[in-house]
């Protein structure tokens, strides 16, 4: 996910700390590191969908983080990326993905592209991913990275996540990686009947990860699945 504000001042100190730690660590092959990540951080915490686990094994997370942090790409933590943003903890990526119950025929919308990691994972599980990012530089670099790595079924747009991406609606799945105070109405409108939406909702410090299913009349059936701590979903100009 793309995170804002709270990491901005902490990033230099964290980079220095992790760089010092990295010097003392023995290099681990990326594939081996991903296997460890999936087993210890994800599967043992209850994520069981074999397709989700395989996607987490396949996506090279170390190519979505800044070079100084590559030795920590598979650690059980979010990491700072560009523009004061972060890449989410691997477990949260896997958990949110599993909750969507992705199928190969599905079309998905992601709000908050960030580094492109979540979109890459989801792209292995559905037919098409449309992902929208507010910050122009992040949108550009994520699009370039995803293309370079061969994720051809992902399309990136720079724009307002609150507005969604109506051109390609309705969506079978919508995933949001920053927290509004309430579910944006545009996203509800763009969700297909029977579709699933996962989104953190609430003010900073008191948020719930909510899973919503849209019924045939257009109403959402919502349940909270996990307490979380995401940064706010930022509106343009804020």
What does this entry look like structurally?
It is a single chain. With 238 residues, the protein is of the alpha/beta class. The chain has a single domain (11-228), classed as 3-Layer(aba) Sandwich (Rossmann fold). Helix content is 30%, strand content 23%. It has seven helices and nine strands, in the order αααββαβαβαββαβββ. It has helices at residues 11-24, 30-42, 50-58, 90-99, 117-123, 136-148, 185-190, and strands at residues 79-80, 86-87, 107-111, 128-133, 154-158, 171-176, 191-201, 207-214, 220-228. The strands form two sheets. A seven-stranded mixed beta sheet has the order 5-4-3-6-7-8-9. Helix 2 (30-42) runs antiparallel to helix 3 (50-58). It is globular and about 55 Å long. It starts with 10 loop residues before the first helix and ends in a 10-residue tail after the last strand. The model is unreliable at 1-26 (pLDDT under 50).
Draw up the topology in text.
Elements: H1 11-24, H2 30-42, H3 50-58, E1 79-80, E2 86-87, H4 90-99, E3 107-111, H5 117-123, E4 128-133, H6 136-148, E5 154-158, E6 171-176, H7 185-190, E7 191-201, E8 207-214, E9 220-228
Helix pairs in contact: 2-3, 2-4
Indicate the CATH class.
Alpha Beta
The total strand number stands at: 9
Helical percentage: 25-40%
CATH architecture: 3-Layer(aba) Sandwich
Concise description?
This protein is α/β, with parallel strands linked by helices.
């Amino acid at each position: 996910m793309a995170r804002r504000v709270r990491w901005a001042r902490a990033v230099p100190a964290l980079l220095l700390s992790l760089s010092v730690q990295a010097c003392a660590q023995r290099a681990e092959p990326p594939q081996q590191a991903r296997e460890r990540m999936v087993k210890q951080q994800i599967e043992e915490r209850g994520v069981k969908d074999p397709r989700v686990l395989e996607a987490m094994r396949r996506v090279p997370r170390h190519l979505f983080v800044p070079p100084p942090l590559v030795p920590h790409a598979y650690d059980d933590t979010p990491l700072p990326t560009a523009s004061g943003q972060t890449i989410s903890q691997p477990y949260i990526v896997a958990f949110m993905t599993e909750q969507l119950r992705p199928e190969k025929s599905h079309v998905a919308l992601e709000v908050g592209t960030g580094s492109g990691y979540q979109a890459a994972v989801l792209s292995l599980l559905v037919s098409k991913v449309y992902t929208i990012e507010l910050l122009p530089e992040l949108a550009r670099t994520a699009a370039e990275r995803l293309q370079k790595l061969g994720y051809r079924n992902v399309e990136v747009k720079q724009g307002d996540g609150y507005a969604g991406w109506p051109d390609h609606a309705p969506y079978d799945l919508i995933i949001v990686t920053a927290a509004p105070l309430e579910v944006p109405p545009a996203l509800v409108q763009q969700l297909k009947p029977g579709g699933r939406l996962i989104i953190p909702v609430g003010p900073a410090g008191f948020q719930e990860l909510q899973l919503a299913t849209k019924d045939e009349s257009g109403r959402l059936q919502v349940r909270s699945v996990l307490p979380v701590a995401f940064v706010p979903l930022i509106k343009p100009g804020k």
